[in-house]
Design goal:
Blueprint lengths: L3 H80 L6 H82 L4 H13 L5 E5 L2 E2 L8 H9 L4 E2 L6 E3 L10
Helix pairs in contact: 1-2
Length: 244
C-alpha cells in the first residue's frame, strides 16, 4: 500500500501525462475542422473563378449579338446602295440616301459599342487567366496543408497511444480506489485533477482553505479534496505547517 505522499507523487506524474494527453487529444479533435476550413477556402476560390468566367461568357455573348446586329445593318446599307440606281425620282433618291445615312449613323454607334465590349472582354479574359493561375497556386497550397494535417493527425495518434501506455504504467502503481477517484475528477476537470496549495489557497479555484484542511494535508494520512472545486489537494514539502 502506497503512503499518501507516494500516491501524490504518482498522481503528479500521471497528471503530467494527462496534461499532454488532453492537449494532444484536443489538437486531434480540431484537425477535421481545420481540414474543412482549408477545403472551404479552395471552394471559395473556385466559386470566384466560376463567377468571373460567367461574366466573361456574358460579355462574349453580348459581343456576338452586337456584331450580328452590325452585320445585318451593314447588309441593309449595301442592299439600299444597290437600289439607288433603280430609283426614278429625286425625291425617292433623296429619301433613300437619308435612310442609308441613318443606318450608317446607327452602325457607327454599334461599332463604338462593340469596341467598348471588346475592351471589357479583354479585361475579363485577363482576369480569368489571372484567377486560374491563382487557383492553381491555391490548389497546391491546399494539397500541401491537407498533407501536413494528415501527417499531424498520424503523429498525434501515435503520441496519444504512447501517452496512454505511459499513463497506464504509472496508474498501476496507484491503489484502485484512488485511480477511480482521480479518473472521475480528471474527466470532469479536463485534465486537472490534482493541484497544490498556494499559501492557504487552492491553486485551481483560489478559495482559502480551512485550517482543518491544511492540517489534514500536512498530516498526509489520506487524500484531501478541495471543498470548492473538488480537486485533489497536496502541499509541497516546505509549505504551510500544521494549524493549531
Amino acid at each position: 500500500m502506497l503512503k499518501v505522499r507516494e500516491t501524490i507523487e504518482a498522481l503528479k506524474k500521471i497528471q503530467v501525462v494527462d496534461s499532454e494527453l488532453y492537449a494532444a487529444q484536443q489538437q486531434l479533435f480540431d484537425i477535421p475542422e481545420k481540414k474543412a476550413e482549408v477545403k472551404r477556402q479552395l471552394e471559395s476560390e473556385k466559386s470566384h473563378l466560376n463567377e468571373i468566367e460567367g461574366e466573361l461568357r456574358k460579355l462574349q455573348l453580348r459581343q456576338k449579338e452586337k456584331e450580328g446586329e452590325l452585320a445585318q445593318k451593314e447588309a441593309n446599307v449595301k442592299k439600299l446602295d444597290g437600289q439607288l440606281g433603280l430609283l426614278k425620282t429625286n425625291k425617292e433618291y433623296s429619301a433613300m440616301q437619308q435612310e442609308i445615312a441613318s443606318l450608317k449613323a446607327d452602325n457607327s454607334l454599334l461599332e463604338e459599342e462593340i469596341i467598348k465590349i471588346l475592351d471589357e472582354v479583354e479585361a475579363a479574359d485577363e482576369e480569368v487567366k489571372k484567377e486560374k493561375g491563382r487557383l492553381g497556386q491555391v490548389e497546391k497550397e491546399v494539397s500541401q496543408k491537407l498533407a501536413e494535417l494528415d501527417q499531424q493527425e498520424k503523429t498525434l495518434q501515435t503520441a496519444i497511444e504512447k501517452l496512454k501506455k505511459d499513463r497506464q504504467t504509472v496508474m498501476e502503481q496507484v491503489p484502485l480506489d484512488v485511480r477511480d477517484l482521480y479518473n472521475r475528477i480528471v474527466e470532469v476537470k479536463q485534465g486537472l485533477a490534482l493541484v497544490k496549495t498556494e499559501g492557504e489557497n487552492c491553486a485551481a479555484c483560489q478559495i482559502k482553505l480551512r485550517p482543518q484542511i491544511i492540517n489534514e494535508l500536512q498530516l498526509e494520512e489520506h487524500l484531501v479534496i478541495c471543498e470548492n472545486c473538488s480537486r485533489i489537494l497536496y502541499l509541497e514539502n516546505e509549505e504551510v505547517s500544521p494549524q493549531t
